[in-house]
Amino acid sequence: MTSLKQIVEETCSRISRGTPSLDIISNLVDYPLNPEALEFHISDSETVPFYQHHLPVLIGLLIKGYVVDDVVPMSLIERVIAKGKSDVVFTCLFNQLVSGTVREQHKYKLLADTFEAFIFQYRRIPPVFQIASTHEPALLENKAVLEDFLRSLISLPSRLSNVCCGPLALKIFDRFAFVDVVLSSFTRSSCFTELCGVAIGQFVLSGNALEVAKFILSSVRNYSESLSPGERNFYGTALRFIKPDCIEPLISNMLKESPHPEYIKMILKDVFQGPFDPVSNYFLKVFRRIIFVRYFQGDRLLRNLFGTLSGIVREFSDPSSYLIRKVNSDLGYPIARLWADPVSIQRTSVEQRLYISQAFASWFTDFYMPLVGALPSGTDNPDLLSDVLFGISNHLANARPEIRTMGMVFGECILEILPFRVNSNGDCHLKFDYEETALTRAIKSSFVPLPALVYEEDMSFPLTPPRAPQPNESAPKGNVGSTSEVIDSDDDVDDAATTDDLLPQLQSFTKCGETSATLGTRKPRYLRECLDGMLLGKPEDNHTRLICFSVAGSLIREHPGAAKELVADLTSALLHSQPVISDEVSFNESQHSALVALGVVSPKDYSRCLINEFIQPTCSFGLRQRILTALTDVACELSNVPIMPLANRISHAALDGGSQSSTQRDKRSIPNNGLRQKHSINSFIPVAGDFFFPLLNSVPQLHSASQKGYFAHQDASILTQLIANYGIICACAHSSPAQWRMVHEFLELLPMVYRHSEPTVRQASLVALGTVITTIPSAILFSVSSLDSHELSNLMEWLARCVTRETDNECKVLASVTLSALMDKVREILLSESDAKDGFDASRSVDLSVAILVVHLFQMISGDEAAPVHELLEFGSETINAGTVWLLPSMEMHGLWESLVFDSDIKSDLLQYAQTALLFAEKQVFCYILDVTVLPFRYRINLSLFCIVDQIKRYPNVLVLATSNVTGVIDPAFLDRADIRIFIGPPSAPAIYTIYRSCLTELIRVGLVDEDGSNLLSYQALAAMQFTENKINPASIDLWNLAQRSVGLNGRTLRKLPLLAHAFHLKKVNPRTQSVMPYGARVHLAPPTSIVILLLRNRLFP
After folding, report:
1. ω before 476 within 30° of 0 (cis)?
2. What's the pLDDT tens digit per position in 649-699?
3. Which residues on neighbouring strands pair with residue 169, listed in sequence order?
4. If 0-12 CB within 10 Å is exposed, 13-18 middle and 19+ buried, where does residue 1075 land?
5. Least crowded by CB within 10 Å, which of 6, 346, 382, 993?
């Protein structure tokens, strides 16, 4: 006896061989089965497996034979579409579309025509839900299946437009027609409200919010009188089941398109179900966002919004409902305060002020005034009148005439209807003189009450979707495949001209290399929506995931606040969600750009998430590579270092020496300071430690794992990339207080890493070391905390051994280049003192490697020859000391020049003046022509000093320097003879710090103070650390704080303070003891002879 299963298997076999039996197939695909046509009995036990397993296989083979193999005639496919089980037919057609087995364009179009016939010609979507309308328990059991069917159905136009090129005159690409045919398939009963909500939400997410809004409004308008209350409330109840991300685009379009708020009231009155209902509260949040965040031209949306809320309140049995309080407290009164706020008036544009004024007028006219008598106690705002008057005065005080005019018009209109009495007769009218313009008419129209709804009136615009072209009609003029002709219905048409240019151009992922008609111009609007799209896991949602990945980076940068809240979720989605891709390079670029954008927005939380993922034992090789690349690029972008495109980035495997010729290796150089851009803000400094130190802890584990084991080569590759990235991250932390610690710990880790057997790991170590040496300032690199003289010597010796003993040629070249860079860094001699006002000035540094040196050898004069010679003059019986002469260079004056500390360029000015004077003397310039300050002798000579000064001018190699502490009584004749007059005030804080440091350094040198390993840093090094205290500079910070408190003291007093402190403010101990205490604790006195020398010569502090 032949069974149904045997017949199906035989039929499928014949279809696969290309010889289908048309009669048998026609009877098998009919739904329901007709046993009489099959001429054998079919039991109930055979029917269930037939519909669940055998029929999908049979229809799938038929569709494949028709579209791909061309062995099934079109008439048979028409029979399947017209009489087959509708859900099975659609599933098989959809699986054929997404399977990727179709290659030719004409077959894709053939498949699109089949979908067109299934949806529009034979209207097979309603039968999918027909069984649910008669058997409600079946609907509950198949809810997930029906939701998947809806998602696949609604994504169908996007999928077809991705694979079909050129103009297609199909109704399936008509947004209005497609929305109408899908949403009209639901029977208006309570069992379909949730499914309808799912369908509405999917349509909104796919960019059809405008079409859905017009369809719902059209349905309510056309059938409001003929429907029962339950059917009339069908769409309002369905809106309670849509996703929160879909509410704003749908509601904003409904408010814009509705001709009267009564229609929206019919839809939304079942949405608000009490103060504790989360759906109601979310709708109110959307209304608040529409008013205070969004901007719409015209007042139709605002009038519909407050008119709808007013109508909903009036239908409630309790007039003192929560909705009155909620609308007034969340919308009305904040609008009034914002309208009156002087800061908002000053900073916002005229268009925004008009929008706020219309919102205030709409709330006042459509909601507040109709319900003023029903306001419950405690909900009225007694300050409303004062806010209005305050806002009018602020508008009138504004400099812009448009703002003043708005204040005049608004004041006139609102005070006419404001329910407050100013005087006994109730006269509180204002009247201003202004010109009637479109601006004034727009405000006045918002105060006109809305008329009652008349159902027979004709609308000013069509709500019914326009008729789609029939298949036999000519193709439309616009190219469906052209992205320039398509406008997303979620976009505001009024604002398209001003906002389209600001949206990023999105990449379209297609299967046939053509731009998609629908996906090419559509993207998720919100970051949460994008995150949900990336987490979709079904095969039919793959195209949505690709689009979300392509725009994730731009959305993160556009919404940094939301990105900070979703750092963990976005990081997990970007790292672990992997859709099916055809263009791996483009997808990797999109994924990497999103990771970098997220790190730039929230670097601290981002680094914690990525590093926690990196150190997990289950983290894969490719994921670790992506994490390291993302962390490095985030560091570069935050520090304003240019980032190399991901596609052009050289792999770390290129460090292998065998991949380059010897000529290329000899020319290799370490990156220099040119990586950083000048005058840029380094935002990486506060988070540099969060990127560097947690990664550093993973090096020992990777080092041991990369020595042996099956995956040792992968761990060695990750270790190579990690070490190379250390150098980049350390260089990006320019001027960070943690940079010295980075250098110190990296140098401590370097010997262990360099003992690795893999040459690539050793090469990466040398590259990272070279990057650190060439990019970090010398003040940080050669500080005691990072690299003292002993460690510097050991590092040079180690690099020299690498050059001579290394077996890998590439390592030899890198070690040689790194050693040369280190020696060049050492040869850079920077002036330790600076007369600049702000301390260290790099422009005043002298690089001896490029400077032209002129060396003068001299011998200091000491002993009796160095003693000064006094010149005596006799005036009668009195002998005076006319002067003192030293033979130069004298040991008596050694170190005096270096001990001078000024806040200006006094020393350099004096040197330049002396050099110019000697040059003029050498060229025998006639000085009396140039010296315009010299006056005739007979008018000015009053003292013998002036005569001597004027006589000295004949000697070209003599300079006269004079100082005085009584500047107010100097003779002007003497000042006229001075070529340079400099006022030297009290030293500033940097100069005081240098003076104190020199004094303490001298005490340390002679043994009165023990430094105890804590060296006093120079002002330049302290400034490079941004005066931030760490474990190497506590004494320097204390001295800097003392210098700041000493501002105002003169230099003589400052140099006496260490001696006075030593003498009077330290605990006295036995002076014969030879022990010495560190500064900051107890300091012992020196022998008495040293004190005598200090008092007599006063030369310890020059």
Report:
1. no
2. 433 333 333 334 333 333 333 334 333 344 456 788 888 888 888 888 888
3. none
4. exposed
5. 382
The pLDDT-based confidence of 408 (bands split at 50, 70, 90) is very high
**pLDDT per residue as tens digits for the range 370-396:** 886 555 554 456 778 888 889 999 999
pLDDT at 181: 92
Burial 345-376 (b: 16+ CB within 10 A, else e): beebeeeebbbbbbbbbbbbbbbbbbbeeebe
pLDDT, the chain, mean: 74
Task: Look at residue 145 and tell me if it is in a domain.
Answer: yes
Angle at 666 between CA 663 and CA 672, to 5 degrees: 130
List, as one string, the DSSP characters of 180-225.
HHHHTTS-SSGGGHHHHHHHHHHHHHTT-HHHHHHHHHHHHHHHTT
Distance, in Å, from the CA atom of 637 to the CA atom of 634, rounded to the nearest integer, reads 5
**In 3D, which of 611, 617, 646, 592 has the Cα closest to residue 715?**
617
Show the tokens assigned to 316: 């409630």
Which of 145, 173, 201 represents a domain boundary (last residue)? 173
Helix axes 584-601, 567-576, angle to 10 degrees: 160
User: Does 744 reside within a domain?
Assistant: no
Task: Please tell me whether residues 930 and 1022 are part of one structural domain.
Answer: no
* Same domain, residue pair 1022 and 957: no
Q: What is the DSSP string of 796-814?
A: HHHHHHHHHH-S-HHHHHH
Picking from 112, 252, 205, the residue whose alpha carbon sits closest to that of residue 547 is 205
Looking at residues 831-845, what average pLDDT do you find?
44
Q: What separation in angstroms does the CA of 391 have from each of 429, 448, 789, 875?
A: 16, 21, 71, 89
Closest CA to 312 of 369, 351, 273: 273
Residue whose structure tokens are 């497609």: 178
Burial readout 513-548 (b: 16 or more C-beta within 10 A, e: otherwise)? ebbbbbbbbbbbbbbbbbbbbbebeeebbbbbbbbb
Looking at the structure, do residues 1004 and 945 belong to the same domain, yes or no?
Answer: no
Q: Are residues 926 and 998 in the same domain?
A: no
Paired with 880 in beta bridges are 873
147 lies in which domain range?
Answer: 1-173
Dihedral angle over CA of 632, 637, 643, 647, nearest 10: 70
Q: Write the single-letter amino acid at 1023.
A: A
Plot region of 243 (φ>0 → left; ψ -120 to 50 → alpha; else → beta): beta
Query: Residue 490's pLDDT is what?
Result: 42
- 368 in the same domain as 277: yes
Q: Is the pLDDT of residue 212 over 90?
A: yes
C-alpha–C-alpha distance, residues 730 and 615, integer Å: 20
| Structural domains of the chain, count | 4
- Kindly state whether residue 470 falls inside one of the protein's structural domains: no
* Cis peptide leading into residue 56 (ω within 30°): no
Alpha-carbon 214 to chain mean position: 37
Q: Give the whole-angstrom CA distance, residue 1043 versus residue 994.
A: 9
Mark whether 302 and 436 lie in a shared domain.
yes
Boundary residue ending a domain (434, 452, 470): 452
For residue 872, what are the β-bridge partners? 881
Same-domain pairing of 77 and 112: yes
* Amino acid residing at 144: A
Which of 181-195, 345-359, 552-566, 1002-1016 has the lowest average pLDDT? 1002-1016
pLDDT at residue 1098, rounded to an integer: 30
* Residue 71 lies inside a defined structural domain of this protein: yes
Supply the pLDDT for residue 1085.
32
The whole-angstrom distance between residue 6's C-alpha and the CA centroid of its chain comes to 64
Q: Give the distance, in angstroms, between the CA of residue 913 and the centroid of all CA atoms in the same chain.
A: 54
Q: What is the 3-state secondary structure (H, E, C) of 247-295?
A: HHHHHHHHHHHCCCHHHHHHHHCCCCCCCCCHHHHHHHHHHHHHHHCCC
pLDDT, one tens digit per residue, over 307-363 is: 999 988 887 655 446 788 889 889 999 999 999 999 889 888 888 899 999 999 999
